[in-house]
Specification:
The chain is mainly alpha-helical and 477 residues long. Helices cover 73% and strands 0% of the residues. Helix 8 packs antiparallel against helix 9 and helix 9 packs antiparallel against helix 10. It is built from 24 helices and no strands. It starts with a helix and ends in a 13-residue tail after the last helix. It is extended, with a radius of gyration of 31 Å. About 7% of the residues have low confidence. Among the domains are: 134 residues, Alpha Horseshoe (Serine Threonine Protein Phosphatase 5, Tetratricopeptide repeat); 81 residues, no CATH class; 112 residues, Alpha Horseshoe (Serine Threonine Protein Phosphatase 5, Tetratricopeptide repeat).
Length: 477
């Protein structure tokens, strides 16, 4: 079926090309429209149709006569389709509109968004680019184009889009952040492009980032001059030392620490890769690389969440943030699992891994790790409370109660307020379930004494005491 559609689409495209050569514009547009309907993912069909439509109108930049009126019903339909998230219909409607006015920036944005939501990145790129060509200073359009290009690893073009935003709004912090990210990623990709090994990269200096963010950062920290004299730039001194002695792992480690302190994680990873060629099994370097990769993921996740917060109606943006959050959690668990295996005596690592399992409601996986963590006196109270919760949530009520009681022997509200409240809360719930109301009331009361708004404790405590209005008729205040 796919091959049949592709062949038919190609036939219509050929007919359209022939008709365009004869300046039979109406038939040519109809042929290209049929090609697009059959193979909407082929960018060439859309580009050729656009060129045909513009020639049909003599490149007048306004399209058909009374185009704005003719487009009103199409825009209304697009609005309704967007509410239903009917991206296929928006795609079709945008193409109809562009046949009437092939210079309408908003219709190109509609086309790009619909294509992106249908995971047709090439056509989305085409649509966004055309929109920005027509309305160069539109901030929202440039931001959408910039993010799309960044996701496609087209960092130079993405940078141009974000810079256009900065030209319009010099205080646009999101664009400034993305300019910095484009520069960093561009440097890394250029460094490895065409190299047979990372050793070839070691002798090259990364290209200088020249953007507003970098200028601000230099002003705060001092210029990072590429040709700084010895002693003027700590980083340049370190890089010079590496060039003189490229087999000295310790020199790489100093530079890595400096890059980490400035949160330049991609560049730090680049140096770790070079150092690992000299010391392939260095556990410290390998773990640092994992940490930095996780930090980069965290930054991406933070940005994705912010974009989702600002665009709650854009399903693709929201889903991407959710997918990145899942990916980040899985990566954390994989990393911590490996660390626990490599450092079996580190109870803090076991506690951290148990906490990740607890957050994912994998309580049975968390229990043995928490049991081991209770042996560390520094972690014992927190581990006992979390262990009690895991037991309760797996149906082991008596075991859970035992952990909470044991924890409260040494817990106090000043030093461990969260663990103190959680232990009392679970004990209150357990006693309430067992109809030991006096005990439940006691535990809830302990919480209310230090945190009146904790969870649903107010209501539970009030219900056990007979309700808030029991003395409503008593006026002697």
């Amino acid at each position: 079926m796919t091959d049949t559609l592709a062949n038919a689409a190609q036939e219509w495209f050929k007919k359209g090309t022939d008709a365009m050569g004869r300046e039979n514009w109406d038939f040519a547009v109809e042929c290209f429209t049929n090609s697009i309907k059959m193979k909407p993912d082929v960018q060439l069909f859309r580009q050729t149709k656009l060129g045909c439509c513009r020639r049909m109108y003599g490149d007048n930049k306004t399209g058909a006569r009374m185009a704005s009126m003719k487009l009103m019903p199409i825009r209304g339909k697009i609005k309704k389709a967007r509410m239903k998230k009917d991206w296929k219909s928006i795609d079709t409607l945008a193409e109809q509109g562009l046949t009437i006015n092939p210079w309408d920036a908003q219709l190109f944005m509609d086309l790009g968004e619909a294509a992106l939501e249908q995971e047709n990145s090439d056509v989305a790129r085409f649509g966004y680019f055309e929109a920005v060509k027509i309305d160069t200073k539109n901030v929202a359009n440039n931001m959408a184009l910039g993010y799309l290009l960044f996701d496609r690893n087209e960092f130079e073009e993405a940078r141009k889009a974000f810079q256009r935003v900065r030209d319009v709004d010099a205080m646009h912090s999101e664009a400034r952040t993305m300019l910095s990210r484009c520069d960093t990623q561009s440097v890394i990709h250029r460094s490895y492009e065409g190299k047979e090994s990372t050793k070839e990269v070691a002798t090259e200096e990364p290209a200088a980032a020249t953007n507003a963010y970098e200028e601000d950062r230099r002003a705060r920290r001092g210029a990072r001059a590429e040709n700084a004299a010895p002693g003027e730039s700590e980083e340049m001194d370190m890089r010079a030392a590496i060039r003189k002695d490229p087999k000295n792992v310790a020199r790489y480690q100093k530079l890595i620490s400096l890059l980490e302190s400035e949160r330049r994680f991609p560049e730090a990873i680049e140096q770790i890769d070079l150092a690992l060629e000299l010391a392939p099994g260095d556990q410290g370097l390998l773990e640092s690389k994992e940490d930095y990769e996780l930090e980069i993921m965290k930054e991406r996740l933070t940005e994705a969440k912010e974009r989702a917060r600002k665009n709650p109606s854009r399903e693709r943006v929201v889903k991407k943030a959710e997918a990145l959050a899942d990916e980040f959690r899985e990566r954390e668990i994989a990393m911590l699992t490996s660390r626990v295996e490599n450092h079996p005596q580190d109870m803090k690592l076991k506690m951290e891994l148990a906490e990740r399992f607890r957050r994912k409601t994998k309580f049975k996986l968390a229990i043995p790790l928490l049991q081991q963590a209770t042996k560390d006196t520094r972690l014992q109270n927190a581990a006992l409370v979390k262990l009690g919760e895991c037991f309760v949530r797996t149906g082991q009520m008596s075991l859970g109660k035992r952990q909470f009681d044991k924890a409260l022997e040494s817990l106090n509200s000043q030093d461990h307020p969260e663990e103190f409240k959680l232990a009392h809360y679970f004990l209150g719930r357990l006693n309430e379930k067992a109809e030991n109301n006096d005990q439940a009331e006691f535990h809830y009361g302990e919480i209310l004494g230090i945190d009146w708004d904790y969870k649903d404790v107010q209501k539970r405590h009030s219900d056990l005491q007979g309700g808030e209005d029991e003395f409503g008729d008593f006026d002697d205040l």
